[in-house]
Amino acid sequence: MPLKFLVNLPRPQKRIISLFIDSVFIIVAFWLAFLLRLDSTAVLKNTHTWVLLAAVLPLSLLSFVKLGLYRAVLRYMNTQAMWAIIAGVVLSTVYLTVLSFFLSAPVPRTVPFIYASFCILFVGGARLTVRAVVGQITMRRKEGVIIYGAGSAGRQLATALANGPEYSPVAFIDDDPKKHLS
């Protein structure tokens, strides 16, 4: 199964794959933003637009790297990683806007907003999808456990077990009647 192959790759190779996929997403978001705004492919004939893309792409990827986007383990991705994605996309959009001015590229004012929306959708959505799929695969391999104690310690234990590789909490047992069916 190709998914198992990808999951078992060493982390540096996964980072390279993520960089490549993010490159594709940035390029697609760039051209889709123009296509959606202008409803024409005429912008493809403009050299300044290609130079703009050639400048925005590496700067965006460098921002993603500096923000730690490729250090995050997708299976445990949290809100901090989503904020890194949003910050990286904002920086990418700023690069697009500023460089379009300096490179005299014909960029309508709405294109950066459309571009940012597509980037967040593609880059963030892909990571959330991978997290969900990998989570389902690893969930099947976990052994179900019942936790005695539904208080704060039991909840902390459930969180730790759910994020670990071996066990999956399936129920709580508690002798306090107030915590039953809650």
Automatic annotation (TrEMBL):
- Tell me yes or no: is Membrane among this UniProt entry's keywords: yes
Q: Where are the transmembrane segments?
A: 16-38, 50-69, 81-107, 113-134
Q: Which UniProt keywords apply?
A: Membrane, Transmembrane, Transmembrane helix
Q: Please give the coiled-coil regions recorded for this protein.
A: none
Q: What is this protein called?
A: Polysaccharide biosynthesis protein CapD-like domain-containing protein
**Species name for this entry?**
marine sediment metagenome
